[in-house]
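Morning. Coffee machine broken again, so started the prediction first thing and wrote up yesterday's gels while waiting. Chain of 196 residues, entered below exactly as on the submission form.
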Amino acid sequence: MAVAANPPAGRRRVAITGAAGFLGQLARQSCEDLGLEVIGFDLVEPRCQGGPTITGTSVARSAKVDRCTADLSLEGALEGAFDGCDTVIHLAADGRPHADFLSDVLPSNIQGTYRVLEEAQRAGVRRVIFASTNHTQHGATMQLGSHAGSMDWSRLGSLGGPASLKISDPLGRAGPDSFYGVSKICGEAMGYLYAR
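Came back before lunch.
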């Protein structure tokens, strides 16, 4: 699909990566409800860690995806994608807690975020919204094990419930529970660097 260089006069354009996922679909609908022009990006067969209305590890490509990109980690995959965009909402990531770091998390989450930030900077995008995760802190409050990455409320209850949780590191360092959490910490740091 060819994307016009600029949105119609008076209308702002937003790009959403991970547009076929649960959060991507919600974000798109919210943006459209606000009258924004939305361009959605996702994989041909996106992976999804699930959500209230999604089960399994894969969702079908949404009709709300305007452009499929094979791999955000590849140089040039997003070339020109954000031209004319005011905002990029970066939701695309491999969120599986047990995903392989080198083959899945590094290219999808770390290199992909780098490519999104580079293209946004090149295109003069005013704002990038980066979706992080509670998985950046789970390791500080929960034990790793067979449920790494899950919010099992019974485990939280054994700690006295959510209100009793305290970050175990007085210096405030992150406590990821998975390579997914690590990748989001890296993405937060990259976002900080690009914002400066």
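The CA atoms of residues 69 and 137 lie 30 Å apart. Going to sketch it on the whiteboard this afternoon.
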